[in-house]
Design brief:
Chain lengths: 131, 366
C-alpha cells in the first residue's frame, strides 16, 4: 500500500504538488512511483529560472531499473531545486514527500494547482493500474 | 500463461518482504527492500541467494568422461581430482554458445553439472541427444534446492550457522566441491559463486532448505535478490547467458576464449572446427568493459561508437561499488581507450577497460 498524503495534489504521471504559504509549489514524485522504479542512482533536476508548461518534461530520475521522465505539473518558473539529491538520490526512495522534494516552482496561474487530482482521485488511479 | 513455479524457499521470501517477479518461469525475489543495500551487504559482509531454480544434473556411467570431453568446449581432463570444478561453455556445431555452466568432477563415473534455469529445456534435450548410444546416465536433481552464500564473511557465518553438517567443507579450496551426504540427506557444498566474493553454493534436499535458510538468517546472513545478483556478477566481470552471449555468439567474441581448451589437439569437441576457423581468421569483435564517465546508467543494447566502428552493450547497470555505470560491450576487435554510448538520444563518453571492475569488495578503478 503506498502512502498518498491527503493535503497534496497529484498528476497522472505520478508527481505530487504541495502549495506553500507564499504561493509557490513544491514538486516531487509519489511513493507509488519510487516504489515502482526502485533504488534511485541519479536525479537530473531542472535549472533554476527555467520555465516549463504543464506536462512538459523537466527532470529525469534514473533508478537501477530504468530512467523515467518527470513532468512539470503546472506552467511556471523553477525557483529552487533540491541540491541534496545529487549526493543522496536515495532520499527520493526513503522520503519522497519531504526531504525527497525535487524542485519548487512559481506558478504562472495560481488556480492551476486546484485542477490537479486530489488524494482520493490519485488513489483510484493507482488502484486501477493494478498495484 | 502458465503460473510461475516456486522454489522451496518461497515462504521464506515472503517472510523477508521480497518483491517477487517472474524469472524464467519462476517466481523469484528481485529484492527484499533495496537492491543497492543488498549489493553492499555481499561485498562487505555475507548475503544469500535462493538459486534453486537453477538446474543440477548428475552425469554417471562408464563413458561419462569421454562424453563430456566431446560435449564441452573446456576439457574435463583438467579436473581429474575429486571435487574440482570447471567453468565451460557448451557449444553447437557452429561454435555458438548453447549455455555456460560449471561441472564438478566427483569420481571417474560421476560428474555434477549446474546449468542455467532459463535454458533448462534446450540444455536437457541437447545433452540427452548427444548421450544417445553412450554409456552415460543423466539425472536431473530437482529434489535438491540450492542456496548460495557469498561475501567476505560468508564461509564463517555458514559454518557458525550449520555446524557439523558442513564440517567437511572447512578445508575446501576455491573452485572445489565436496559431497557431504549422510543418512539425513545428500548435501553438496561447492566453494564457487557468481559474485566475485568468496563463499559457498550449497545443494541440499528441498525439504531442508527452509530450516537451513532460517539458520543462516539467524547467523546474520542477509537475503539477497536477483537485482543485486546482476550488479555483483557484472562488477566481477562474469557473463550472463542470454545477454552477453547466445547461440549466435562465439565464445571468442564473448570474452570466453580462456574457457576453450584447444589443447590437446586431438580432442574433438562439438564446435571445435568452427572455432578453429574463427581463431585463424581472427574474431571481428571482442567483449570489453565500459565505464561511463558522464552521469547516467548503462544498460543492455545501447549503441557504442568507437573510432573503429559501432558496437553494442550486452549488459549494463549502475555499479554500487564504483558509484558509476558499467557495462560489458561487444566492440570491434582493435578498439581501445574511449568510445561514446548513445543513451536517450545523447552521446555520452565512456572508457573501454579490461574487466573485472571490482575485486575483494573494492573498485579496481579510481
Amino acid at each position: 500500500m503506498s502512502n498518498v498524503p491527503n493535503e497534496l495534489r497529484y498528476t497522472k504521471s505520478h508527481e505530487w504538488v504541495r502549495t506553500e504559504a507564499d504561493g509557490s509549489v513544491t514538486v516531487g514524485i509519489t511513493d507509488h512511483a519510487q516504489e515502482l522504479l526502485g533504488d534511485m542512482v541519479f536525479i537530473e533536476l531542472p535549472e533554476t529560472e527555467a520555465n516549463y508548461t504543464a506536462g512538459e518534461e523537466c527532470a529525469v530520475v534514473e533508478s537501477v531499473k530504468a530512467a523515467s521522465d518527470v513532468y512539470s505539473p503546472i506552467t511556471g518558473e523553477v525557483i529552487a531545486v533540491n541540491e541534496e539529491l545529487a549526493d543522496a538520490p536515495e532520499t527520493v526512495n526513503q522520503d519522497p514527500y519531504d526531504t525527497g522534494w525535487m524542485f519548487k516552482m512559481q506558478p504562472e496561474d495560481a488556480g492551476e494547482v486546484d485542477e490537479l487530482m486530489d488524494a482520493e482521485a490519485y488513489n483510484e488511479l493507482i488502484a486501477e493500474e493494478g498495484h | 500463461m502458465p503460473t510461475p513455479q516456486r522454489t522451496p524457499l518461497h515462504p521464506q521470501h515472503l517472510a523477508s518482504g521480497a518483491k517477487l517477479v517472474d524469472f524464467a518461469g519462476w517466481e523469484m525475489p528481485i529484492h527484499y527492500g533495496s537492491q543497492l543495500e543488498e549489493h553492499h551487504q555481499v561485498r562487505n559482509d555475507a548475503g544469500m541467494f535462493d538459486v534453486s531454480h537453477m538446474v543440477v544434473l548428475d552425469l554417471t556411467g562408464n563413458e561419462v568422461t569421454d562424453f563430456l570431453r566431446r560435449l564441452l568446449a573446456n576439457d574435463v581432463a583438467r579436473i581429474q581430482t575429486p571435487g574440482k570444478a570447471l567453468y565451460s561453455c557448451m557449444l553447437n556445431e557452429r561454435g555458438g554458445v548453447i549455455d555456460d555452466l560449471i561441472v564438478y568432477f566427483m569420481d571417474d563415473n560421476w560428474y555434477r553439472m549446474v546449468v542455467n534455469a532459463a535454458t533448462r529445456d534446450k540444455d536437457l534435450a541437447w545433452i540427452r541427444q548427444q548421450a544417445e548410444d553412450r554409456e552415460v546416465q543423466i539425472r536431473e536433481r530437482d529434489d535438491l534446492a540450492m542456496i548460495a552464500v557469498q561475501g567476505p564473511n560468508a564461509r564463517d557465518k555458514t559454518h557458525a550457522a550449520l555446524g557439523a553438517r558442513i564440517d567437511p567443507a572447512h578445508d575446501l579450496k576455491p573452485f572445489f566441491a565436496i559431497d557431504c551426504r549422510d543418512t539425513k540427506g545428500e548435501w553438496f557444498v561447492a566453494r564457487t559463486g557468481y559474485t566475485g566474493e568468496d563463499g559457498y553454493e550449497i545443494m541440499l534436499p528441498a525439504a531442508q532448505a527452509g530450516d537451513t535458510w532460517e539458520a543462516l538468517l539467524a547467523a546474520g546472513v542477509r537475503p539477497i535478490g536477483l537485482g543485486a545478483r546482476d550488479t555483483l556478477r557484472l562488477e566481477a566481470g562474469m557473463n550472463l547467458y542470454g545477454q552477453d552471449m547466445d547461440e549466435d555468439t562465439s565464445p571468442l567474441e564473448a570474452g570466453l576464449a580462456w574457457t576453450v581448451a584447444f589443447e590437446p589437439l586431438d580432442r574433438d569437441f562439438i564446435g571445435r572446427t568452427a572455432l578453429e576457423a574463427q581463431k585463424t581468421a581472427g574474431p571481428a569483435n571482442k567483449l570489453v568493459g565500459l565505464i561511463l564517465e558522464d552521469r547516467g546508467v548503462l544498460r543492455a543494447h545501447q549503441k557504442v561508437l568507437t573510432e573503429l566502428g559501432a558496437g553494442e552493450t550486452t549488459s549494463g547497470s549502475f555499479s554500487p561499488t564504483l558509484g558509476k555505470a558499467i557495462a560489458l560491450a561487444r566492440v570491434p576487435a582493435a578498439a581501445t581507450d574511449n568510445c561514446t554510448v548513445e543513451i536517450r538520444g545523447k552521446q555520452l563518453a565512456a572508457r573501454i577497460v579490461k574487466y573485472p571492475f571490482a575485486r575483494n569488495g573494492k573498485s579496481l578503478f579510481d
